[in-house]
Amino acid sequence: MAEPVVPRNERFDVLAPRVPIADLGVVHVLAAGGAGMSAIVRLLLDAGVSVQGSDQKDSPLLRRLEELGARVWVGHDPDHLEGVDTVVVSSAIREDNPELAAARERGLRVLHRSQALAAAMGGQTRVAIAGANGKTTTSSMLTVALLEAGERPSFALGGELAARGVNAALGDGSAFVAEADESDGTFLAYAPHVAIVTNVQPDHLDFYGDFATVQAAYREFAGTITAGAKGEPGLLVACADDEGSRRLAEQVRADGTRVLTYGFGPGADVRLGEPELDGTDAAADVASAGGTERLTIRVPGRHNLLNATAALLAATEGLGVDPRAVLEGLAAYTGTRRRFETRGTVAGVTVVDDYAHNPGKVEAVIRAAREITGRGRLHVIFQPHLYSRTRDFAEGFARGLEPADEVTLLEIYGAREDPIPGVGPELIATPLAAAGTSVQVRDAPAAVTHVAAQARPGDLVLTVGAGDVTQLAPRILAALRNGERGRA
Length: 488
Hints:
Rossmann fold, UDP-N-acetylmuramoyl-L-alanine:D-glutamate ligase, Protein-Tyrosine Phosphatase, Chain A, 3 domains, eleven-stranded mixed beta sheet, six-stranded mixed beta sheet, 15 helices
């Protein structure tokens, strides 16, 4: 059977030779206040590039970039491009955006975010982390482990490190750690020396069309792994517990690339023992050909033990860092913003926020929350992200949410998409109700009021989604603080 043809992002040639950072000139970044784009601004500023940016909305993150030296505007205006040489955008920026349209008309260099990130990597050893689930956490764990080991890496992450409050920095060490976004095929831009694939699962079908094409895209990504400057072989680190990632590892190994797999299952090259889950901590023995080490992390769940093992292998086998230093660094990891982030506890009720937005992520975060809730009840407010994803994976979301005691669904956060007729949160609510889970669809104010009224001491409230649901956590805590608990 012929390999599916992987679609190209027709707007950007991410396989073109990378632009040297010294050639970028004055750079203007659209949507600069976003998590991914703000990382580009930080990296370019660290490199001494003149950077400016705009965003539709003002935000603390945008103002922080201004404090760091970037010129920023709220709103998009072609006049912002005066004196600009390079414009950086993401796939979410439409061609009719006034700044992008003006850049095209004036013949300015327009780069995708991934191309700008590739330019910032320079001559460092590139580590790219891909996967439907876990890539931000794995990237963050690897970054913290390297920082704690004194390696001074550069990094670009999909979320801020909780203990450091940054999502990107240009270090003077030998490694550059980058989260590689597969959603639009642009993860082919990096040509990593070390790649991690946490899992290969059906997602972003609005771009790829079907799962077979998603799998082919990861195969192409793995094909971009390159040897080091001294000829040392590239390395793929892949999770053997995930069928898609395991199959990828088998294919890539047959092609002659060095591969190490990890997992709880017996077929992994590096195998985790029975996990010990204690509240928000987790530990397991990690056995490899070189012996057995004890892995301890301060974040919950089996999935995070897998993420930490991937980071361990990339650091030790891919970058040559001492295993004990890496293990100590992983034990110091305290989390990433919006990745099972505890936002506060009021009246015995803990509120946690998480970015999970596909079925695998949702299932993992609900399982982790269920493990630490104990006798308390688990209340979930879930905001579906994208109409196409909700249409394609409604039943998967329902299965992931099912272990919760109560689920409140918000309207879909459309992001870059226009509404699709007949697609709404009810597609998730119907199978959830059929499974016996208490579920309702509410707007944000009603969701806050309802959850605050229902929660009791010992309960956990989890806000989940990639949209603006994160704004509800402080409002829930305020409602609990104001004594609204129990006013059902």
